[in-house]
Every structure is written in C-alpha cells, then in structure tokens.
Amino acid sequence: MIAEPDGPEDRLRRFATIWSRAVFPATSTSLTRPEFEELLLPLARRLSEALRARTFEAEEGKAVGAALVSAHCTDPDALTRSLECVDAYLVLYCGGDGSQEDLRIRSARLQHAMAAGFAQALRERTLAEQEAISVAALQAQGVVAQALHATEARFRAVFEGAAIGIGMADLDGNILQVNGALLRMFGINDQTMGGRNVREWTHPDDAPQTWTLYDELVRGEREHYHVEKAFYRPDGTVLWTNLTVSLLRDADGNPQYQLALMEDTTERRLLNLRLRYEATHDALTGLPNRTLFFERLEKALGAGNNQRFGLCYLDLDGFKTINDSLGHAAGDRLLVEVADRLQSCATAPGEMVARLGGDEFVALTTGPDTEREVDELAGRIMNALITPVSIDGRDLTVRGSIGIVEGPAGERGPAEVLRSADITMYRAKSAGGNRFELADPEADARAITRHGLTTALPAALDRNEFFIEYQPLVHLGDGSVRGAEALVRWLHPQHGVLGPDRFIPLAEHTGLIVPLGRWVLEQSVRQARAWRETYGDAVPLRINVNLSPCQLTHPGLVQDTVDILERTGVAPDALCLEVTESALIGADDDLLKPLRRLAEMGVDIALDDFGTGYSNLANLRRLPVSILKLDRSFTQSMQQFPADPVDLKIVEGIVSLAHSLNLAVTVEGVETGAQAEQLRILGCDTAQGWFYARPGPPERLHDLALVDATG
C-alpha cells in the first residue's frame, strides 16, 4: 500500500517527481533530472486543476502535450511514459475526495487530449524544421553559385595575370591550357604550345627522381611534388625553373588534371654559378682555389674500388726576392705565367691544378696507377719551369720545390695529406730546392714533433720543465775537477727528457733562446756559488755556459750577465761563456764588442767546436777568447792504440799555436784512458767526456770534487 502525503502540495510534488523519473531517460535535454522535475511541476499542476475543475477543459490536456514537445520530450517513448504515469498516479495523488469513477473518466480524457496536443505540436515542429532547412538550402545554393562565379573570376585573373608560368594538362600529359607568363618564358605562342605533351620536355640535367615523381602523381599516389628542372626553348637555349606540379581531383576524389607552376630561375642560376666560380677560383690566375681543391681532394680520398691519389705540392724558390726587387705587379705576372704552364701539365682525366695562395700550387691526379703518374706529373712540372719567364724585358729563372704524397684512397683525410705534402715540400727546399721529394712517414712524424715542441716551448719555460745537468771539466795534469759545463735538458710531459739538440734550434728559431739562455745562465751561476760555498778556495770550480748566436746579438747580453753575477755574488772569473767557432766566423767589431767587455770584466770566453768552422787561424789574435775547445772529431782516432799520426800532428799543432797565444786547450768527447793519456802528452790542459763522467745532477760533481779535495 502506498502511503499518501499529508497536504495537496506535497502530493502534487510527489506526482511531479514520479513523472520526471519515468520520462527523463527518454528526453533529449541538457537539464539535470531535478531541473527537469521543476519543469514538469507546473504541467502537473495544470493536469491536477483540470482533473478537479467543475467543467472539463480538453485544451488543458492539449497544452500539456504541446509543452512536452517544447521541453524536447519528442521521442514517442516519452509520450507513452507520460500517459502511463498520468493514468496510474494523477487520480491517486491529485484527485482529492471526488468520485473516483468520475475522476478516472476525466483522467482518460486528459490523456487523449495530451496525446492530441503532443502529436499536433510535434507535426508543427517538424514542418517548421523542414521549412527552415529548405530555406537554408536555397540560400546556400545561391551563395555557392555566387562563390563559384567569384572563384572562377579570381582564378582567371590569377591565371592570366600571374608572373609565374601556369599550365594545365590531362593525366596523359596533353597540355590543355597555359598562361601568358609561361609562353613568354618559353618564347613561343599559344598555337605552338597546342598539341604538346608534357613528356616531350625531358632534359639531360633532369634529376633521376623527376619522372618517377611525375608518374606517382598522375597515378594518384601523391598530391604534388617540387623539383628544379631545365627545359629547352625552341631557340636551343636552356630555361631553368622551380617547378611545382599538383594533382587536381574531381568531385568524387578521382584524379582529373595536373597543374604546373613554373618560376623562371635562369638568371638567378647563372648568377649563383658565377658566384660559385668566383668563390672557388683564384682571381689572379683563374685556377681552382683552396676551397675547390679541398672539395676535389676530399672526393678523391673518399673514392673506393682500389682507387689511389697522387699530390704534388709546389712552392717557388726565391719568389720573395722577385717581389721585393721587381715589385708585386711583376710577381703577379710571374704567377700567372707559372699557372698557365702548370695548367698545361695536368690535362689528363683525373688531373687538376690549383693555387693555394701566394706562390704555392698543388697538382692532383687520381686513378688506379698514381704511383707512376704522380712522378711523371712532377717531372712535367719541373720541365715546364725550366724556360725563363720574361717580365719587363728581364728573363727570370723559375725554380720550384715539390713535395709528393701518393697512396690509396680512404686511409687519410685532406688536411693530413696536405700537411704531409707541405712538410715534404719544405724538406725538398731544405735540400737545396729545384727538386721534388717523396713523402716519408718518419720524416713527417719528426716534423710534426718539431712543430709540437715549438708551440710548447713558451709554456714549458713558465712551467719550469727545464733543468740543468753538469759534466765535469778535468785537469789532464793532475786529474782534478776544475769545473763543469752546464747542459740544459727539457723534461717534456709526453716525450720525456729531451737533449739540447732537440729544442735549442727551435728556441733559436722562435727567439725563445734569449729568455731560456738567461734562465740557464742564472741557474748555472747560482750553482757555481753553491759549489764555492761548499768547497771554498780549495776547489775553485768554474761553470761553463753555452751562448747561442742569437744571444750574442741581443743588446742585453752584457747587462744581463752583470746583473746575474752581482745578484748571486759570484766573481766573473767563476764563469766561462762558450761560443761556437761558426758563430764568430767573419764577426765584425760590433759583434765582438760585447764579448770584449765581458772578457775585460774577467769572464772567460771559450771558442767551442774549434776546427769545424774552417776559420782563418789568424783570426784568433783578434778574438777575445782565452780557451779553445777542440771538437771531438780530432780526437776520435785516439780512442784506440796506435792513434792516427796525422790526427796527432794536427792536435799537436793546434795546442802549440794556442799556447803560443796564451790560450788554454780543452778537449771534448774523451771516452777512454788511452785517449786521455795521449791528450795529456800532447799538452792539452783540460778535458771532458764519458771517461770521467756523464752529464748529471750537481750532487755528482760534489762527490767528484770531494774526492779530489780529500786526495
């Protein structure tokens, strides 16, 4: 049994709730279920009032049915559920105390009225929607017609007035229509274009994928493609274009036409080619420049299939002298003539000549047999330079040095190959020039090492990587230690301990020899002071320090020496500066002046490597030297018994001459006791060599001197 609510309003609310729950699932509304219940509440009130009215009004039921349509309850199931709800609950909740029979009759009549009102409202709504759709369709049709007309007019205007060429063809390639710009690009008229087919426009420079893309487009497999394409004009000239081809489909999506857009890029391409030529060719000689040469070399080195390459690196000998004496204009004319001759030497397939800059040229040959071809190419180049070049009425002899690198492709990069050729060329130049040399990996490695050492020298001095070893100087008469020669060493982080022959020439070349020599002098003089403080006057040790030719010409030599001696508190007679004989050959008074000043102060000057410079012995009288150091080449034969009598006479004569000039004689390279004894007999004063001690730390000299001092 259903419990009745207390008041009429509560019963009405309960009926609306039941109605909303029954109909809501069948509605098409954005309202929530409680919101939908509030929408049905006034309809429920109208039904309740019509049920209990004195006279029955069917219009109320029609109004409620129409209201359901307005509330989007247009689904037939919504009407069915509403009628079932009214039939079951309207009398129960809204009938009051009236006759149940009469109330049910009225309820049935209200249901019929609701159904009629619902049907009428739904029909009117459907008709209204159909009318709206028809009107919209007519309006749309008019708009589309206008749009199509406007679009066609705009297309025609664009087609005829476009600056780019436009053409349309069917899927078989038959040309249907072209615009004026395209006709002007090809230099033809519309009649000439008629009957042409797209496939007639092939060109040897077509990219491989051009016609593949075209076939895919006409088959409907792609919508468009873009390529750079060349066309022949009727007059035989070439038209270059940026070509875009698009596929046009019909209303059903089937391929129907092809549309081509062409932009004339001929002038731009010619300009780009000109700029490319200027960027890759030497302005003076017209030869390929470094940029183009590297591209060709990289391509040659990347080739496979047992391909090889040969490279000739040419540098003219003495070109700077020609520039300095005759001027740069004459030098330029010489370079042009050399370039023409080189160009005539490299005419075979796979050969090219380029100018890298200045007076440096390269010739490249590629192929399977470059071992023979590169030698022949170098020979042709050398022969081409034999004939003098006439410049301003002067016949100039042209000489050149060539470095040759040859090998299989794929093993080295362009930079490595060119570096090897450059190193080899300088090796040919160092050997006298006017020749060619073949690359040697070991020589390359030595040159690269020298370059690495050269660049590392300045930092090495700052990082205190240099140290000094000392080789004792022994008196031949009594065997006592009289001093030591300071020999600088470099403790390189990668190469270990390097002797002076590895880095002193590099230091002289870079100018670092001056600060390095100053450092060696100061460290050596400080060591001399330490020895004298240890042994006093009992063992008057003297330090010998080598001077390079660069140091001799440095204006600060004398002042630096004075400052170091004063700063360390060492007397000048504790220092001996060794200068090679070759450095003083032909020396003028300006070069000798610093040495004379040092000698006047009490510093001994030794003439090192005496006998190797082929100097005039009469020059000894004008040199401020007090010691001659005989080169080891004079005494090597004395290591065995009997000694070469010629060498004995030479040494005896030198010693006699030196003593007559009040010069002491020191001998280098003493390695045996027999050699030392023979030198003593000949009258030599002091000696040094492995027989006494190898160069070592200063502590070793302490030990030797201590033995002498203690007997």
Structure explained in plain terms:
The chain has 711 residues and is an alpha/beta fold. β13 and β14 form a beta hairpin. It is elongated, with a radius of gyration of 55 Å. The model is unreliable at 1-5 (pLDDT under 50).
Specify the helix fraction band: 40-55%
Strand content: 15-25%
Nearest-angstrom radius of gyration? 55 Å
What kind of sheet is the major sheet? 8 strands, mixed, barrel
Structure classification: alpha/beta
Unreliable spans: 1-5
Number of strands: 21
- Measured between the Cα atoms of the first and last residue, the distance is 144 Å
Q: Looking across the biggest beta sheet, what order are the strands in?
A: 13-14-16-17-18-19-20-21
Whole-number mean pLDDT: 85
What best-fitting shape do the alpha-carbon axes yield?
Answer: elongated
**Helical run tally:** 24
List keywords for this structure.
711 residues, alpha/beta, eight-stranded mixed β-barrel, five-stranded antiparallel sheet, 20% strand, elongated, disordered N terminus
In short:
The chain has 711 residues and is an alpha/beta fold. Strands 13-14-16-17-18-19-20-21 form an eight-stranded mixed β-barrel, surrounded by four helices. The radius of gyration is 55 Å and the shape is elongated.
List the helices and strands and how they pair.
Elements: H1 8-23, H2 33-52, H3 58-70, H4 76-94, H5 100-161, E1 165-170, E2 175-178, H6 180-186, H7 190-193, H8 210-218, E3 224-232, E4 238-249, E5 255-264, H9 266-280, H10 290-301, E6 308-317, H11 319-326, H12 328-345, E7 351-357, E8 360-367, H13 370-384, E9 389-391, E10 394-396, E11 399-408, H14 414-430, E12 435-438, H15 441-462, E13 466-475, E14 481-492, E15 496-498, H16 500-510, H17 513-535, E16 542-547, H18 549-552, H19 557-568, E17 575-580, H20 581-584, H21 589-601, E18 604-610, E19 627-630, H22 645-660, E20 664-667, H23 673-682, E21 686-687, H24 698-710
Parallel strand pairs: 11-12, 14-16, 16-17, 17-18, 18-19, 19-20, 20-21
Antiparallel strand pairs: 1-2, 1-5, 3-4, 4-5, 6-8, 6-11, 7-8, 9-10, 13-14, 13-21, 14-15
